[in-house]
Specification:
Shape: globular
Order of helices and strands: EHEHEHEEHEEHEHEHHH
Number of strands: 9
Number of helices: 9
Largest sheet: 9 strands, mixed
Length: about 290
């Protein structure tokens, strides 16, 4: 595996202020056999100027400019350009540990999927990830039914064999959960996984960084939009099982919400009921 090539795909959109730090973390890798494809997704800041500096610094950096189409479109452009044996996705505001590639490829055995732990990088401080990744998470069933409920795995935790990604493209109609579909795709045959129990990926979450996944209404709507895509890819059985699972989870969450609200209102029937309905509609009504 000494000459295994890793293709790093860095999707950029108006994050020029973090791009140097991101690309520096790639340049500092102790493993030398990599290429880094910087995909500028129609940025209006100085992303291009910053990228040009890096492609002059090291020939392993490459640069693509494309019209703005969203992160899925940018990653697809990077996949088309890539030529490595493994793919490392890396958003332009995130970083990886300098030993990530070396530790991932250590040993004689080749794994199609290699995952590390991660930290949350916020205001110049590293914190533990919001969940500790377990090897058992990375199975087709657990990815389909546990994602966003029991765990998620930031995409840059993974080193993914190009063989697993063969035939895959990110769905550009989704603004969130596009990575969930990728995880479903690459685990469909339950590939052998190596888990490195060290935080080798660093996910930036600044106070001013808005995340679509922090909006519960958006998450709920986007989870349902995934259903017809899964039906097309994997058939009625998986579609129906996941749909019923979503309904069951939703009912459970409503029951828990009602229980918590009853504790707050002290069980007052009429005023509690009316207040609960207002609370319910405010919480779950569809926001346009």
């Amino acid at each position: 595996m000494s000459n295994t090539v890793i293709s790093v795909i860095v999707a950029c959109y108006n994050q020029e202020q973090f791009l140097d730090e991101c690309l520096q973390s790639v340049l500092e890798q102790t493993y030398p056999y990599w290429e880094c494809i910087i995909v500028n997704d129609g940025s209006t800041d100085d992303t291009e100027k910053t990228a040009e500096k890096w492609i002059k610094k090291d020939p392993r950096f490459q640069y693509i400019y494309k019209e703005n189409g969203g992160i899925s479109s940018a990653r697809n452009a990077g996949l088309e350009k890539s030529s490595g044996d493994y793919i490392q996705f890396l958003d332009s505001d995130d970083t990886i540990d300098r030993e990530k590639f070396t530790k991932s490829l250590a040993g004689d055995k080749e794994y199609p999927l290699i995952i590390s732990q991660f930290t949350i990088y916020k205001n110049n401080t590293h914190y533990k990830g919001y969940n500790h990744i377990e090897k058992a998470f990375v199975s087709f069933e657990n990815i389909v039914f546990g994602w966003n409920l029991k765990f998620t795995i930031p995409i840059h935790c993974a080193l993914i064999s190009t063989k697993l990604l063969e035939g895959f493209i990110f769905d550009t109609t989704l603004s969130i959960n596009e990575d969930w579909l990728m995880w479903i795709y690459i685990t469909k045959n339950n590939p052998e996984v190596r888990l490195i129990d060290e935080p080798l990926a660093h996910y930036r979450k600044e106070d001013n960084k808005k995340s679509l996944s922090s909006d519960p209404y958006k998450v709920l709507r986007q989870r349902t939009t995934v259903l017809p895509i899964l039906k097309k890819l994997y058939g009625d059985d998986l579609h129906d099982r996941l749909a019923y699972h979503m309904i069951e989870v939703h009912i459970t969450q409503l029951s828990q919400l009602k229980h918590e609200f009853n504790k707050v209102t002290g069980g007052k029937v009429v005023s509690g009921y009316l207040a609960f309905k207002r609370y319910y509609y405010n919480f779950f009504q569809k926001k346009n």
